[in-house]
């Protein structure tokens, strides 16, 4: 009787620790540097992590009632496919929507301001530096070259993709751990 109670508590502890690990592990995915004038960015990132945490918590609650191995196998596959797809999209979007500056990636925009410093540089020097050197012209301040609205739009797209990466990685870790627990219970009950 004590052993069966310990098994139930151990399952809940395992799922809870998986939930915590998936949320803290979400911070491993690199985040671009945000321009200092935007105060809402850190709020949106924290809010996204909070929502991912809550949704992952609901997945754990769902796991306590649903003991069908096939369901958790399907969820594991779906979450890993979604995570890989969204992470690849995030990686390519990050490459396209950021420029390096002093070992940081700064979010840029899609639309240039009227007095574009790149055009002035090209006119005076006869060439435009490579993409990796363009942020040096504006000294790390993207608002000197791109409109604030386009920078904000790109920033929000990256935040949403990052949030989805957090969510799908947490969902995969929880569903996969639950699948392992259910397989272990199935094979122990056969013995």
What does this structure look like?
With about 190 residues, the protein is mainly alpha-helical. The chain contains six helices and two strands; from the N terminus they run αααββααα. It has helices at about 1-25, 40-65, 70-95, 115-125, 135, 150-190, and strands spanning about 100, 105. It has a two-stranded antiparallel ribbon. The longest helix has about 45 residues, at about 150-190. It is elongated, with a radius of gyration of 23 Å.
* Overall geometry: elongated
| Main sheet: strands, sense, barrel | 2 strands, antiparallel
Order of helices and strands: HHHEEHHH
Helix content: over 70%
Number of strands: 2
CA-CA gap between termini: 18 Å
Order of the strands making up the biggest sheet? 1-2
Number of helices: 6
Broad structural category: mainly alpha
Mean pLDDT: 78
Uncertain stretches: none
Q: Could you tell me the radius of gyration in angstroms?
A: 23 Å
Write out key terms for the chains shown:
71% helix; 4% strand; two-stranded antiparallel ribbon; mainly alpha
Task: Annotate the secondary structure layout.
Layout: H1 2-25, H2 40-65, H3 69-97, E1 98-101, E2 104-107, H4 117-125, H5 134-137, H6 148-190
Antiparallel strand pairs: 1-2
Helix pairs in contact: 1-2, 1-6, 2-6, 3-6
């Amino acid at each position: 009787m004590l052993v069966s109670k310990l098994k139930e508590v151990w399952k809940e502890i395992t799922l809870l620790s998986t939930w915590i690990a998936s949320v803290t592990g979400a911070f491993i995915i690199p985040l671009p540097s945000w321009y200092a004038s935007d105060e809402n960015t850190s709020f949106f990132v924290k809010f996204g992590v909070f929502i991912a945490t809550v949704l992952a918590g609901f997945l754990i609650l769902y796991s306590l009632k649903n003991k069908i191995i096939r369901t958790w196998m399907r969820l594991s596959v779906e979450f890993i496919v979604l995570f890989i797809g969204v992470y690849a999209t995030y990686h390519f979007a990050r490459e396209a929507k950021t420029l390096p500056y002093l070992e940081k990636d700064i979010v840029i925009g899609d639309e240039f301001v009227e007095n574009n410093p790149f055009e002035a540089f090209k006119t005076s020097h006869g060439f435009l530096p490579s993409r990796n050197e363009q942020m040096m012209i504006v000294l790390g301040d993207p608002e000197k070259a791109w409109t604030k609205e386009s920078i904000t739009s790109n920033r929000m797209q990256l935040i949403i993709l990052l949030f989805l990466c957090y969510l799908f990685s947490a969902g995969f870790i929880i569903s996969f751990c639950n699948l392992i627990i259910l397989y272990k219970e199935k094979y122990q009950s056969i013995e």
